[in-house]
Design brief:
alpha/beta; 11 helices; about 15% strand
Length: about 400
């Protein structure tokens, strides 16, 4: 049916059923440890995605039909919330919809029945009689390792893991060690920023390892030149650090009091804002800060200004690293350039080490007695590495990692 250019379809139309059956078939063929690896290419000579992981698989599918858009958005939101069950959610939603279309019952009755059955299933899942529940002793390492090995091993094919379970066991041990390192002795839960992930292509999975501290990619540090920097240290030998989540690129709107001189030949708001940012940097230099870390961009003039005065600046930490860096260094995450910079605003690290892996440059921030660790995940190829990164994040025990 169409009305003034608007194409309207009922849910039992052939096109809608075809979309549902296609999604159902795709999810069913990828589901479980024996699921097939899917190869998706949006256009000729376009990027080719090889995966069996729901987040990456559904993220690269076209969404030309409203039904596929609705289902994929709901499945992605579910997978993002629980770090798993994306394929199952797609299977369940498409199977229920197709079954409802095939019945002679009314749409409202089917919807009410489905809602009632879903509530009954949830109620049963919380009871002790539910056969789907498995009691796990979180204090027992063998059981924790078994859970991790099951999750990681479920995507053995798409991650190109060895058939003898050596790679699966190695990764499970690393994830468990990272989780346990992040548990304070006097705490009942672990911060989600305690375990970070770093993916490195061109190495075997067996070379994956856990490092103490935060490993931050630093492309501005040259690989072929030895990294030498004389860090400004305090009396205890520590390096004082300032961590900004605010932009230092001169595009800030926080300086509303900047006065523009109309008689000037050339007026640049950016230049005036940079002058205000440099005043903030002078406060850091006077406080003997040795490293400035910024989640966003640092203006080249600001970086040169700091470098000339012996302060190292590292930008573009992004959401991937900023919370882990903040937890590692302590102090305050500076979200405003107007904040009063007191002694409690600064954090500390014991050392900054240059690390080169697969031709990429990293800086490792090290702090004494830290509970923040970085899991370096390795694989020979990019596509299996992307799947492996998602799987290990999802396999980590609840509340122990940060997902991005």
């Amino acid at each position: 049916m169409s009305f003034k250019g608007l194409n309207m379809q009922t849910i039992d139309s052939c096109e809608v059923i075809t979309v549902l059956e296609t999604l159902n078939k795709l999810a069913k063929s990828s589901y479980g440890p024996n699921g097939k690896v899917q190869v998706v290419q949006m256009a000729a000579e376009g990027h080719m995605t090889v995966t069996a992981q729901s987040g990456r698989l559904f993220g690269c599918l076209p969404r030309e039909h409203p039904v596929s858009t609705l289902i994929l958005a709901a499945v992605e939101a579910h997978a993002k919330l629980y770090d798993d069950f994306g394929l199952y959610a797609c299977l369940l939603s498409t199977e229920l919809t197709l079954d409802m279309i095939g019945t002679t019952l009314g749409r409202k009755l089917c919807s009410a029945a489905t809602e009632k059955l879903a509530q009954l299933c949830l109620d049963h899942a919380t009871t002790a009689e539910c056969g789907c529940r498995q009691r796990v002793d979180m204090a027992g390492l063998p059981q924790l390792l078994a859970v991790l090995e099951t999750v990681i091993g479920s995507k053995r094919r798409s991650c190109c893991l060895s058939d003898d379970d050596v790679d699966v066991k190695h990764l499970a041990v690393l994830v468990l060690r990272g989780f346990l390192h992040g548990i304070p002795a006097d705490a009942t839960c672990v911060s989600r920023a305690s375990l970070l992930f770093c993916a490195v292509a061109g190495k075997a999975v067996a070379e994956s390892h856990l490092v103490a501290g935060v490993l931050v990619e630093a492309p501005e540090v040259r690989v072929d030149v030895p990294f030498r920097c004389r860090w400004r240290r305090d009396g205890a030998g520590r390096i004082k650090v300032a961590v900004f989540s605010a932009s230092l690129a001169g595009d800030s709107d926080q300086f509303h009091s900047v006065q523009l001189d109309e008689s000037a030949q050339e007026v640049s708001k950016e230049r005036l804002v940079i002058q205000q940012v440099l005043k903030v940097m002078d406060v850091l230099i006077e406080a003997e800060v040795g490293v400035v870390l910024c989640q966003k961009v640092i203006h080249s003039q600001v970086k040169s200004y700091l470098q000339e005065r012996g302060v190292f600046a590292l930008e573009r930490l992004s959401i991937r690293y900023i919370h882990g860096v903040h937890r590692l260094t302590g102090g305050t995450l500076l979200s405003s350039l107007h904040a009063e910079l007191t002694a409690g605003c600064y954090g500390y690290v014991d050392d900054v080490v240059h690390v080169v892996m697969s031709g990429r440059s990293f800086l490792r921030l090290v702090a004494r007695d830290t509970r923040v660790h970085t899991l370096v995940i390795c694989s020979w190829q990019e596509e299996p590495l992307d799947d492996l990164k998602v799987i290990t994040r999802g396999a980590a025990p609840p509340r122990s990692v940060r997902t991005c």
